[in-house]
Amino acid sequence: MKLIHVLGLVPFLGMLGGLPYVNKPGAFVLGMPLNLFWIVLWVILTAVIMAIVYAIDPDNREEESS
């Protein structure tokens, strides 16, 4: 399994796998309930991870050089 495939799984596992653990009533982070903060955090992290996948994917390097 390539690194880009593993990186593609990280947002899925982070968002859905961690949600049952952060679903606690009364906990707030930055004014948001903890579970909402968790989802917003993973949306941002997903964009960062996908940018990393784009940068290290060898198929994208070939398009830039031609």
UniProtKB/TrEMBL annotation:
Q: Print the keywords alphabetically.
A: Membrane, Transmembrane, Transmembrane helix
Membrane-spanning residues where? 34-56
The identity of this protein, by name, is DUF3311 domain-containing protein
Report the source organism.
Answer: Brevibacillus brevis (Bacillus brevis)
